[in-house]
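Changelog excerpt

This revision adds worked examples to the README so contributors can see how folded entries look when concatenated. The first example is reproduced verbatim below.
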Amino acid sequence: MAVQDDHVIGMAAGGDSNSTSVAALTSLWVAPGSRGHGIGDRLVVAVVDWAKAAGFSQLLLWVTEGNLHAEALYRRNGFIRTGALVDEPRREFEMNVEL
């Protein structure tokens, strides 16, 4: 969680996936007024660090088609598209990073 002046300005969560060696970044949010200041990067790094410490070998996530800012954030942090996608209820692309 990212806090500034007693206000939550960002949060991220990670957890298990369907594989024992793969963790998932399940959510990420940064307050609109706090975007563009590196908070998203620090939150992603925190989940990556957690996954490494927990012994996972990969971290995956799903990003919605057209969410270019989010996908750029994930790419900056080493994530690449895997080729997997879902179309229901909206198109999302799987991305992962090797730990």
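The second example, added in the same revision:
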Amino acid sequence: MVEDDVRSAMLLQDYLKVTGHNVEHLSDGVGFLERVRSFNPDLILLDVQISESLTGLDLLKQLQHQLDLERIPVVMVTAMAMNGDRENFSPLERSTT
């Protein structure tokens, strides 16, 4: 999970641990690909807005360019709930080929 908001991260992490999941938390994207490789997650939760210089969308693009990591499912987490926000992410959907 990559989440910069401490409260959101604690809530998600606590819930996932109570439901039996192991959770690795990054508060920013530093070392993201290395941590993904070492932890080998079944799923990645990415906050859309991590910082001004690096977003969850940037990390998603990095992940998709790694042949050994591109098949890990990713859930984008955001408070962005305005009309049209969902469509902003649709071009990033992975191809099934």
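Reviewer comment on example two: Residues 48 and 56 are 4 Å apart (CA to CA). Helices lie at 6-18, 32-39, 56-64, 85-89.
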